[in-house]
Write a structure and sequence with these properties.
heterodimer; A: mainly alpha; B: alpha+beta
Chain lengths: ~110, ~725
């Protein structure tokens, strides 16, 4: 019984070492994640879209007057567009950087 | 097997220490492979603790009494159903459950954020592994679940009789899931502050975990209340007990956070407030665990010993000090991006709701820790009771319920008084109609209860109106029939309408609380067979006594050696309503000094409540039989003298003789009888609340697909509709 337990402990230890060391053993792969700025902008964009939808629902269910809705919706869309422009600029920057790193095929 | 469990603990501690080091090195030295390795240490911790938990669970199921924990909290006669749950009835087992659940939730959140927040997650990983390491160290140095004795005893002491209730199977895992899930937003909040990434992304990434923490904590609290009502013989579901309060406090701050995070998401406001709420919720969750496990405050729920006080106090001090330092040192970047557009806006309502929730939490915190504070100041442990809590919490609860009706009908950013007047017409009508009906039936003698009923009607009116209008709008746009439109509306706006369902559930729950606490009829008296009494409109007659002996197994799984009870006939205006069978179980103490027969019934005496629960009222009963009646005492003394300890079979015959004597000549028994209206609605309200939370938590349809094509969508959207702005 104690041999089996010792064996099980060793197997557990080996599994832990294997799981933990995998990223260190692997060749250093290019970063899969996104930049912090992109994360932030995408979170802001999703929140802004939700806000636009919420404002529309508020308007349609009678919580906002025509005048208020137009003003709020206009402001929200302007803010969303600003976020999208920043995302687009970021895309362009990343594309430029990628082109510089990867030479074009002949 | 204990050796395998013992080996898991140091391995888990090493994994925690390594993971903390690797994560911090990875983020500081910009070596993502080390951060990845640190994240994988959390997965490894989950694996190791799963093995440890499986070892302990299997020991309980196999009744392996060589494990000290098994011997002290289980026995051969404990039903399998309860053996499985006995793991977390002990100090050691519950620490293991805590660490195990933490490792599972941490693995899940880190897996889900593996490609995001790369500058925040290594710090969050370190914090989560820090908590994991703390609990593993407690198990290694203070309360190990794998301590063993050889040779093993032939039988164990058995599960605490009070814990033999189905709720207790689920209550601790739910509560601990809630507590451990609270650590996720806490860890990410700390990570965001350290990494100086205080935008809304960490909140968005952990929002679902905050909601899950709130959900599980809420279920745990409700199950605890149900257990208290159905198992403890005092007839209430909430006694403002220290441990009950300890679980309620993080739930309240968590509720506040779930509302205020929307303001940060949408408007970039309340950053200091949100991060403070997250930190406070996490710290209160740790304090809740500390209260249950340290035994520092007397509580019916405090099952722990007093050995864990110092490490917990040290952890809490570090958390509070560290949190204050981080918030103060990052205050510059936590500045708000916008200001409130109007006091008549949903943001303003959320702010009001946050203040009330935090106020409630403060009152409960003060009342709970007042004994410690007073002892520290003047050396006397002064207690505050339920009336003190009620004095402050009832008005705050009224305001809270009212706000939960106002919020849904007010628009974000700003609303006009004209639209507010139009939107409040139906909810106010509901409240007014409720008031007139209540005054008509003559219940004005309880003004606070009447106010709560009116506030609840207001909430039902406002939320009902929201569903109705939303359904009509959806039906008109999509040309769908009403039921389809309603479902589609909820599916497309899960957070909003899930939240509204939660508001309905809370209103219903508070109606149950107000009615049952204000219009309850209760009596405590002694009755002999044939006698009767009146409780409210009901007549309760003591028909006959009951007595059962259950040497090994009993159908009710109570495990009591002897149960003495009564058959009660409940009638109303001469018509039979129900038959109740309350009893009191007497348990084996295992203490031979009480005598060969005395020990069989010398352990804990536990009341087994009997009730007739209905939609409109519960008739609740508990009995305290007089087991010390002279006749019964004479039988026991004589048997103790004549029957040797080594003849338990003869001892049980003597117990049977006592049971027969009780049946033949029953002494007067003490009864506690309660008729409470609408208690059922507390549980129904709770179910509605959790149903709503599930709706809000469920991922929106096509969310993953949306994420995949987010980049393309952003470009397309920019060129289409948004350009018109």
């Amino acid at each position: 019984m104690s041999v089996w337990i010792a064996l099980a402990t060793l197997v557990l230890l080996a599994a832990v070492v294997y799981v933990i060391s995998a990223p260190l053993r692997a060749a250093r792969a290019p970063q899969r994640g996104q930049s912090a700025q992109r994360d932030e902008l995408e979170a802001a964009r999703a929140a802004k879209y939700r806000e636009i939808r919420d404002a529309e629902l508020d308007y349609r269910t009678g919580k906002l007057s025509d005048e208020d809705y137009k003003a709020i919706d206009g402001a929200l869309r302007a803010e969303a567009l600003e976020i999208l422009n920043r995302l687009e600029a970021l895309d362009d920057d990343e594309d430029d950087a990628e082109r510089q790193v990867t030479p074009e095929a002949p | 097997m204990a050796a395998l469990g013992r080996a898991c603990l140091p391995l888990a501690l090493v994994v925690c220490v390594y993971g903390i080091g690797a994560s911090l090195y990875g983020v500081r030295a910009r070596r993502p492979e080390w951060s990845d390795s640190g994240r994988r240490a959390v997965y490894a911790l989950a694996g190791v603790l799963t093995v440890a938990f499986a070892v302990l669970e299997s020991a309980f199921l196999r009744s392996d009494f060589s494990f000290n924990t098994v011997a002290s909290t289980s026995s051969l006669s404990t039903p399998t159903f309860y053996k499985a749950a006995a793991v977390w009835s002990s100090q050691e087992g519950s620490l293991l459950l805590w660490a195990w659940l933490l490792s599972l939730w941490s693995s899940l959140v880190l897996f889900m954020t593996r490609n995001r927040l790369r500058d925040v997650t290594p710090y969050a990983t370190s914090v989560l592994l820090g908590f994991g390491g703390f609990f593993v160290a407690l198990m290694m140095f203070y309360a190990t679940p794998f301590a063993s004795t050889h040779p093993a005893p032939s039988d164990g002491v058995g599960l605490d009789p009070l814990l033999r209730h189905p709720s207790m199977m689920i209550h601790p895992p739910m509560l601990y899931s809630g507590y451990t899930l609270c650590m996720v937003p806490l860890a990410f909040g700390i990570g965001a502050l350290i990494a100086r990434r205080v935008d809304a992304e960490w909140i968005v990434s952990t929002r679902r975990f905050a909601l899950a923490a709130w959900f599980f904590l809420g279920i745990g609290i409700l199950l605890g209340a149900r257990w208290s009502y159905a198992e403890l013989g005092w007839g209430g579901y909430w006694g403002w007990d220290a441990v009950e309060n300890a679980s309620l406090m993080p739930w309240l701050t968590g509720t506040a956070f779930l509302h205020s995070l929307m303001i940060q998401e949408k408007r970039g406001m309340l950053k200091v407030w949100n991060v403070s709420l997250v930190l406070a919720t996490g710290i209160l969750a740790i304090m809740g665990t500390f209260l249950v496990r340290s035994g520092i405050l007397s509580s019916i729920h405090a099952f722990g010993g007093a050995t864990l006080g110092v490490p917990f106090v040290a952890l809490i001090a570090v958390l509070i000090g560290g949190s204050i330092y981080l918030v103060v040192s990052r205050r510059g970047m936590l500045r708000t991006e916008h200001r409130l557009d109007s006091l008549l806006s949903r943001e303003a309502m959320f702010l009001g709701n946050n203040l009330v929730l935090v106020g409630l939490c403060f009152v409960i915190f003060w009342g709970t820790y007042f004994p410690l504070i007073s002892e520290a100041l003047n050396g006397h442990e002064a207690l505050v009771g339920p009336p003190w809590f009620d004095r402050y919490t009832v008005p705050l609860a009224l305001v809270l319920v009212l706000l939960s009706g106002i919020g849904p009908v007010i628009a974000w950013r700003r609303a006009t008084w004209a639209s507010a007047r139009r939107n409040f017409r139906a909810p106010l009508g509901c409240a007014l109609m409720t008031l007139l009906v209540l005054l008509g039936v003559g219940v004005q003698q309880k003004p606070l209860a009447v106010a709560m009923f009116c506030c609840a009607a207001f909430v039902l009116g406002s939320v009902g109106q929201e569903f109705w209008r939303g359904m009509r709008v959806r039906g008109a746009i999509a040309h769908e029939p009403p039921p389809v439109a309603l479902l589609a509306l909820v599916r497309r706006n899960r957070r909003r309408y899930g939240g509204y369902i939660v508001h309905i559930g809370m209103a219903v729950l508070f109606v149950g609380v107000a009615a049952s606490s204000s219009f309850q009829h209760a009596t405590e008296l002694g009755l002999s067979p044939g006698q009767s009494t009146h409780v409210g409109a009901y007549t309760v007659r003591y028909v006959k006594p009951t007595a059962t002996i259950t040497p090994k197994y009993d159908s009710a799984h109570t495990g009591a050696t002897l149960s003495l009870g009564a058959v009660l006939d409940v009638s109303k205006h001469g018509r039979h309503v129900s038959t109740l069978r309350p009893s009191q179980g007497y348990y084996d103490s295992g203490d031979p000094s009480q005598g060969s027969v005395g020990h069989f019934i010398g352990g804990q005496a536990v009341s087994h409540v009997s009730m007739d629960a209905g939609i409109t009222r519960d008739v609740w009963s508990a009995i305290a039989p007089n087991i010390d009646a002279p006749r019964l005492r004479r039988i026991m003394s004589a048997a103790n003298k004549t029957i040797p300890l080594v003849r338990p079979d003869e001892g049980m015959i003597a117990v049977a003789v006592m049971a027969r004597a009780y049946m033949q000549n029953p002494p007067t028994a003490q009864f506690h009888l309660i008729v409470s209206p609408l208690v059922m609605w507390i549980w129904i309200g709770g179910l509605i609340v959790f149903g709503g939370a599930l709706v809000a938590m469920w991922p929106a349809p096509g969310m993953l697909r949306q994420r995949a094509s987010a980049r393309a969508a952003s470009r397309a959207a920019a060129r289409r509709g948004l350009a018109r702005a």
